[in-house]
Amino acid sequence: MNSRTPDAILPEAPEKLKQLSERLSGRLRSTIEADGPMPFSEYMERVLYEPGLGYYSAGLHKLGQGGDFVTAPELGPVFARCLARQIEQLAPAMGAFDILEIGAGTGRLAADLLQALDVPARPARYRILERSADLRRVQEEALAEAVADMEVRIEWLDAPPAEDWTGVLLANEVLDALPVERFRLGSAGIDQLCVANGATGFEWTARPAPDALELAVRTSLGEGLQALAPGYQSEICLLLEPWLKEVSRSLLRGLALFVDYGYPRGAYYAPERRAGTLVCHYRHRGHDDPFFWPGLQDISAFVDFTALAEAGNVAGLDCLGYASQTMFLMGCGLEDILSAGMQLPQRQRLAFAAQVRELTLPSAMGEKFQAMALGRHLDLELRGFQLQDLRHQL
């Protein structure tokens, strides 16, 4: 554990979980001792996904009120019902189609979405690409009852589909978990921020950025670099382009929809955002220390939506829309869904309204979260972006 973390604001971890973290930390320390300072992207990958010990691999309760953070689907069915309206617009143009969800969490979105879709708009298959065996088990339980009476095949995949398919790819809060490089603008150029062994735990260290990282930073920031002072640090996801190409390679025709917290590039690398966007979540508390009990907390970085649009272009996908989560949900019929919810008994009505507030208020998820649609061979004006389309900001 890193002693710089203010323990007073973060709950103490149970002893059994501390032991898991110590085992993971021991592996990381051994790697650093053998190979030298570890690029942060490697550290992030391992603390999240190390088999049996990483945050998403060790069977921890991560999502919902009893976990470390709450995603939009965990609030209730409103988010899924809005997505259903967007898919129903697409369904007639696609014929028989599949839905591929990447990183399905607890399975709540899949269950609520299938129940919300009109029968003619239900997919032939709902496929889930999930790295975590623990989460797969949770998803299986969530979906077993939800789809018991539906003629929909549920499949779990270890890799993106190899065969061509038509349909909708969904990724809700997935991109923020792709490992990122951290960089700093030094007096002599661009530095790569790495992880080293310290006296009380892991600590930051810097070295000149490798050529690939320096080129990526200079290309992405362009003339914006001149406005940033020495000491400025941030993140860049070098995996985004190859990852998107791989997951969308076999999508013959359809839509890839991404919802996540992030900014267009101009805001992402704004001078005032000089500490970057890295955020950690532990028991519903956000903080900025990725070395706090490695493996027991979520680590993520905001998404550069300009980079996502660029990666889509390289992958042969057209950017069909970009909006705040609030305006995307409104475009998908949120007002009608809310009106229907107001017909429920009082307790359910209040819970329904609370969902809508959390999803749409600027102080909650409404502005911080963004939606982007990338399409292949689709000639439609998507309803989710009819009220707002911010592609000009990219």
Short key terms for the protein model shown above:
Rossmann fold; 13 helices; 16 strands; disordered N terminus
Structure, explained:
The structure is a single chain. This protein has 394 residues and is α/β, with parallel strands linked by helices. It has a domain at 72-177 and 240-267 and 303-393: Rossmann fold (3-Layer(aba) Sandwich), CATH 3.40.50.12710. Helix content is 35%, strand content 23%. It is built from 13 helices and 16 strands. It has helices at residues 15-35, 40-49, 72-75, 78-94, 108-116, 133-146, 211-221, 240-248, 265-268, 305-314, 325-331, 334-341, 346-360; strands at 38-39, 98-102, 125-129, 153-157, 165-172, 181-186, 189-197, 202-208, 233-236, 251-263, 279-282, 285-287, 298-300, 303-304, 318-324, 369-376. Strands 2, 3, 4, 5, 10, 14, 15 and 16 form an eight-stranded mixed beta sheet that branches. Strands 1, 6, 7, 8 and 9 form a five-stranded antiparallel beta sheet that branches. β11 (279-282) and β12 (285-287) form a beta hairpin. α5 runs parallel beside α6 and α8 packs across α10 (305-314). The two termini are 39 Å apart. Mean pLDDT is 92; it is low at 1-8.
